[in-house]
Every structure is written in C-alpha cells, then in structure tokens.
Amino acid sequence: MDLVSILTIAVVSLYAAAAFAISSKLFDSAGPNPKVYLTFGSIALAGHSLLLSQNIFFQQTIDFSLINVLSLVAFIITISVTIISTRYRINLILPVVYAFSAALLTILAFVPADQHLVIDPSKFTLVMHISLALLSYGILVIATLYAFQVNFINYKLKSKKLTAVNHLPPLMQVEGQLFMLMLIGTNCLAISELVGFFFIDNFLAKETLHKTLLSITALSVYIAILWGHYRLGWRGHKVLSLSVVATFLLSLSYFGSRFVKEFLLS
What we know:
about 270 residues, 3 strands, 3-stranded antiparallel β-sheet, flat, mainly alpha, 8 helices
C-alpha cells in the first residue's frame, strides 16, 4: 500500500469521525463538542490538502481532471463550512459535509486516475475562469445546504419541537447568511462567465456550448432567486426548490459531460 492510499484512508476515517461526533450528539441536551469534531475535521482537511497537492500539480502543470476537480470542490466546501462553524452554529450542515467528503474520497480512491486535463499555469485567464467557477460552485452548494437548514428550522419551529433546534442558529440569522452566500456565489459565477465569454477562444465552441448554456441557465435561476427574495419576499420552500434546480444544472454543466467523456466513453 502506497503513501497516498494510507493518507486517503486516514483522511476518510477522520472525516467520518468528525461527522459521527456531531450527528451522535446533535439532539442531546449538551450538544456536540466543538473541540472534538473540529479537531477531527481540521486534521482531515490538512491531510486532504496534502492529497490535492500530490494530485493536482502534475509535471509543472495543473491537472484539472474530473477526479481532482471533485476532490478540490469537496475540499473547498468542507474547509469553508468548517471555518464558518467556528463562529456560527451550523451543526445540521457539518455532518452532511464531512460525510460527503468521506464518501467522495472513498469512491475516488477506486477510480483509475489515468485521465488528465493538463493546464499551463501561465494561461492566466483560463486558470482564473476555472478557479472562479469552482469557487462559485462551492459557495452556491453551501448556500443550498443553508436553504435546507432554513426549511428544517422553520418546520421544527412551526411544529413547536423546540428541543430539536436548541443547538441550531436563529432562523433569521441563517436566512440572512443564505442570501449573502448566494449573492457572493452568483457574483463569482457571473464574473467567471464574463471572463470565459471575453477571453477564452472556445467558450462558445460546439463541443462546449452545452456546458455554457447550462451554466448560464443556472446563473439565471440564481439571479431570479435573489431578485424574488429582495423584491417579492421569496423564502422557504420556493427558494429551496429553485436552489436545488440551479445547483443541479450547474453540477450537470461542470461534471455531467466530463463524467461521460472521462469515464463512460474511455
């Protein structure tokens, strides 16, 4: 067993331990112990960053293969949620994110890493476009998780099951953070699309047109959610449903065709 495999097993185990440390105490009177799950999560993130440095930097270039991109997105989401958790109570989201990262790394460990998408770091606009796209995706996925949390807290409050929300943040605080994250993510996505349109030659080429159309459609849905919230007062199930649709479209744009090309067809 090589060093990467050992490190992967360690990272997966630590993510799983962090998820269990939160979920097993989520509705206890004392609640989860932040020192325990943050220790597990932080060490897991350190190991995950080492895995990424080993896999992404490929012969003095950047390898944005689907496996590496998925791992990078999981890392961005996990480290962002972990940092947020040091200031705000997001105990409902944390175990989901940690468990997702553990499951994803487990699956990727069994996928042959023989497909590479090598990019020259000197191509600044292309690297900027991809970086902004991945950053916006991570932020918008977190915003969608926040939408689930808003609906969960709202449901528990309406059902008067107050003990279930003792260790969760106030509803209005979570809702405010949801739309702030969505605003930031939508702006990053819009800038990424503009960079691609003006500076990348094959952005509207036939082989990539479907990706562009899907991402622009997702961007339009996110803009509609923000407009609907700030102008028409949209919230609750409508925001959650539209967020799920937009995130699905964006996921399909970024990963759908690449999955078919790099794994099914190869």
